[in-house]
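Continuing the batch. This is chain 6 of the set; chains 1 through 5 are on the previous pages. Same settings as before, nothing changed between runs. Recording input and output for traceability.
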Amino acid sequence: MNVTINLGGVAAALGILWLNLRPWWKGGRDPKALIPYGAGSTLGALSTICIGGALGWGASGIAGLSSSAGSKGVSSATGTSGDSTLPTGRMGTLTPEGGVVTCLILVAVILLYKTSGKQDKRRIVGGFITFAILGFLPGVAAGLQWLPDLANEAGHRVLEALSKGSTS
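Output for chain 6:
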């Protein structure tokens, strides 16, 4: 998966992040209010390592589109270019068990989306977009290395639990 991210794309992602976190920070700071954004963010971040799959294709497409649009926006607003390309990285890899967990997270996020109101639906999509972009950056990927490890370990433990049984 060849992904190109530039400063304009990062600016777009940070703008979405700010638009989602500022109301929470200014409001009551109820942790439950972060669930929609966090759910989308988790799926977006995991999507960046779903190489060869629809989630990975979507994440790389979002990163590319946001880089084009963000660069154009930076150029239009400031007269300078937002085209400076940034290096990309990966959080790690998914095992088959981690891939199953990621699919289950996808199902959970879809269900959350379908049962949410208009504002929370925007937050879910905003979280996905933000981390489908930022998750490709080496610094963010290094900070989120625990996420694929967690998905892989959870999948391994479920597989292990399902594989064991009592034999009489």
